[in-house]
Write a structure and sequence with these properties.
transmembrane helix; disordered C terminus; elongated; ABC transporter transmembrane region fold; six-stranded mixed beta sheet; nucleotide-binding; ATP hydrolysis activity; ABC_transporter-like_CS; Rossmann fold; binds adenosine-5'-triphosphate; P-loop_NTPase
């Protein structure tokens, strides 16, 4: 008798309202008569579920790591997937009212579905709105839908199985309205048979059928979700690999945005090709079967229902387009927000030292507000759209009831038939809203897809695999031939205006010049982080652009001004980028870089270190060891001793002296400190983007009126004043050491 208990609320709610009732019917039927709907009634799933995913991710990005709460609706097959409580709540509160007969345009057989996709494709214009660095690469928007579907191809077998299971579960769930109608007639007419069988046999058969439906539905949900996650994992890996292949400038500039593409957009994309596709398919089947069943029960009544379709369909198309635009804008705003947070969290100590927490809070809040404003727009649109479609659905239901009641009174149809018809119309309405959700979800997927595909398809300005491999045995001079260069992000300023110089192999050169004169830029060009705009840099007579960047960089050891260490052991940090080196090699390199402190660490080379768990000087020496362990032919030192105290500086300089003396590594050092500059065999002075002077240190420093002499005099004054501070500590050993280290320079300059 549980079936009878179950039918009452179903009917009552149908009559009350076709829209909100739909979900209630779902719930009531399943809760009250669980055996009636084991395979899941139509989901009536709002596209706001997807919308909430974005908002949820916004929350992840701003405050907490992603978590999924396994709150699943007891009724909706799609809710077999984990979803957050908020998502669930929203899905319930904004449950769409099924628009009863909206199926003619979208309810299509597979070929028609193809035409829907083609229509979408032809209407797309996928240039992301604020994609400043993506201009030109976004033109192939229409191919995004194809790419989106292609993503699902490796999962073809599994997805086909899921579609098979979907067919089974949908067919079973479509039996429900018919069964309820027949049950009403069975009990109201006191008939001896139910569906041509004795009642217990028929009930048993139905129970078995529903169990099969439930199993198929569970299988479908599991397969779809796992395939979706597999697709997301694949896209993430590919997109991250593609990012790593880009030129460094790209990642520097767009880190926050890339992270957002890798997390939020890939999720939307994965959902779009699995859950969304599956929901769309289920909606399509339900709508088709539902309409067919309605025609079979009463063609007249069905025609009445179908009158409401056109306005709702038109609204859905406009809504979908608007949503896609909004989705793109939201993703970009989320990217900006992540970028802001990332930058400030990376410089947390600076923020704290300058008591800038309130200011930073405000700045971030502005970015959050931009995301919120977009979400608000979406909320209004969604509310209006679903409200309107709900009203249409309810009016259609009223027509159906009025006219249907009349047909019952003249005995043209039975009460059971009317009930079945009402249920089918709710199913069809739910399916149509599901199709709308599918369409808008697809639009979101296309929007997110264009951002992810752009990342996947982007070709680096300095492709890692382009060129010939530079053999390790080859060596020769590095020559700058009229090199001109502007940073891509600041095209208006020409940093290098025709640099000409030759650096012989095994020699050492100090690049000298005032701050901003282009010393680091020259080193970045040698590293091929950028390419010159004009002129060329050659190695052993060959333009370095002809070598693969990988093989070229293999020959270079770089020590940056601000050394970066990664979370890991000291050994891992020194061996970073040289996976084949032994512990012995690492220790030798550490010794050469004067990293004595490592032996005093609790676990020596196995001590875990992080970004900031060592002093600046220690970090710099580890990064020198990292450069040396590669056994480089060229060593680029960018202010390598700038963070060191006098003792460490002398120790590192001694190591650099050794390297220079051995004459098998070309050393190019950008330096301000006299003690570093004096070690190089040759000095190149940069001014106004050109080489203004070059020569031996002692020659330049003795030449009256030379630019170098003026520069060094100023530098010596700086060093003298800092020395004065150190001299306040007479017991310091560093005093005597650094004094002797700089004696040579003082004498030479006679300032
Ligand atoms: N990534 C960048 N994008 C745009 N402009 C840059 C970039 N890096 C440096 N510049 C500019 O290029 C010029 C040269 O900078 P560079 O870092 O090469 O000078 P530098 O001589 O090494 O200075 P310092 O001695 O202070 O380190 C400067 O005007 C600087 O503002």
């Amino acid at each position: 008798m549980s079936i009878i208990i179950g039918r009452t609320p179903c009917l009552a709610i149908f009559i009350q309202s076709s829209g909100d009732a739909a979900e209630k019917v779902n719930t009531e039927c399943t809760l009250a008569s669980g055996s009636l709907s084991p395979s899941g009634l139509p989901s009536f799933r709002s596209n706001s579920a997807i919308s909430y995913r974005i908002q949820r991710h916004v929350r992840y990005n701003s405050t907490k790591p992603p978590t999924t709460t396994a709150v699943s609706s007891p009724t909706s097959p799609s809710s077999a997937s984990p979803s957050s409580a908020i998502e669930h709540e929203d899905r319930r509160s904004s449950t769409p009212t099924p628009s009863p007969t909206d199926g003619t345009e979208i309810t299509a057989t597979p070929p028609k579905r193809q035409s829907v996709i083609s229509r979408i494709t032809s209407n797309l214009s996928l240039t992301p709105v604020a994609e400043t660095h993506a201009k030109g690469a976004e033109g192939e928007g229409s191919s995004s839908v194809r790419k989106l579907l292609e993503l699902a191809r490796p999962e073809k077998k599994r997805l086909l199985t899921a579609v098979g299971l979907l067919l089974v579960s949908s067919s079973v769930s479509m039996l429900v309205p018919l069964t309820i109608g027949k049950l009403i007639d069975f009990f109201s007419t006191n008939s001896s048979t139910f569906l041509g069988l004795s009642f217990p046999v028929a009930a048993g058969l139905l129970a078995v059928t529903f169990c099969i439906g439930a199993t198929a539905n569970a299988g479908r949900a599991i397969i779809m979700r796992i395939s979706g996650q597999r697709i997301i994992a694949r896209i993430r890996n590919q997109a991250y690999l593609s990012t790593l292949r880009q030129e460094p400038e790209f990642a520097d500039r767009s880190a926050g945005d890339i992270v957002s593409r890798l997390s939020v957009d890939t999720n939307i994309l994965g959902d779009s090709v699995t859950s969304n596709l599956s929901d769309g398919l289920r909606a399509l089947i339900s709508a088709t079967v539902g309409v067919a069943a309605m025609f079979w029960i009463s063609a007249k009544l069905t025609f009445v229902m179908l009158c409401v379709v056109p306005p709702v369909s038109l609204g859905a198309v406009f809504y979908g387009r608007y949503l896609r635009k909004l989705s793109n804008l939201t993703q970009e705003a989320v990217g900006e927000m992540s970028k802001t947070a990332e930058e400030k969290l990376n410089a947390f100590k600076t923020v704290a030292a300058y008591n800038s927490q309130p200011l930073e809070g405000q700045l971030f809040s502005k970015k959050v507000d931009q995301v919120f404003q977009l979400a608000k727009k979406e909320a209004y649109m969604t509310g209006i759209f679903w409200g309107a479609s709900g009203l249409t659905g309810n009016l259609a239901m009223l027509c159906l009831l009025g006219y249907g009641g009349h047909l019952v009174s003249i005995h043209e149809i039975t009460v059971g038939d009317l009930t079945s018809l009402l249920m089918y119309s709710a199913y069809v309405g739910g399916s149509v809203s599901g199709l709308t959700g599918f369409f808008t979800g697809l639009m979101r997927g296309v929007g997110a897809g264009s951002r992810v595909f752009w990342l996947l398809d982007r070709t680096s300005h300095i492709p890692l695999d382009k060129g010939v491999k530079l053999p390790h045995s080859r060596n020769g001079p590095i020559r700058f031939e009229d090199v001109r260069f502007r940073y891509p992000s600041r095209r208006e300023v020409e940093v290098l205006k025709g640099i000409n110089m030759t650096i012989e192999p095994g020699t050492s050169v100090a690049l000298v010049g005032s701050s901003g004169s282009g010393k680091s830029s020259i080193q970045q060009l040698i590293s091929r982080f950028y390419d010159p705009d004009e002129g060329k840099i050659t190695f052993d007579g060959t333009d370095i652009r002809e070598f693969t960047p990988e093989s070229w960089r293999d020959r270079i050891g770089v020590v940056f001004q601000d050394p970066i260490l990664f979370a890991g052991t000291v050994h891992e940090n020194i061996a970073y980028g040289s996976p084949d080196v032994t512990r012995e090699d690492v220790e030798d390199a550490a010794r050469a870089a004067n990293c004595d402190f490592i032996w005093d660490l609790p676990q020596g080379f196995d001590t875990l270190i992080g970004k900031a768990s060592l002093s600046g000087g220690q970090r710099q020496r580890i990064s020198i060891a990292r450069a040396l362990v590669r056994n480089p032919s060229i060593l680029l030192l960018d202010e390598a001793t700038s963070a060191l105290d006098s003792t460490s500086e002398n120790a590192v300089n001694a190591a650099i002296d050794d390297i220079i003396r051995q004459k098998n590594i070309t050393v190019i050092l950008a330096a301000h400190r006299l003690s570093s500059i004096a070690r190089a065999e040759r000095v190149v002075v940069l001014e106004n983007g050109v080489v203004s002077e070059e020569g031996r240190y002692d020659v330049l420093s003795r030449r009256e009126g030379s630019r170098f002499r003026t520069l060094m005099a100023a530098q010596l004054l700086v060093e003298k004043s800092s020395k004065g501070i150190e001299e306040a500590k007479p017991e310091s050993e560093s005093e005597s050491e650094s004094q002797s280290a700089n004696e040579k320079e003082r004498e030479a300059l006679s300032v």
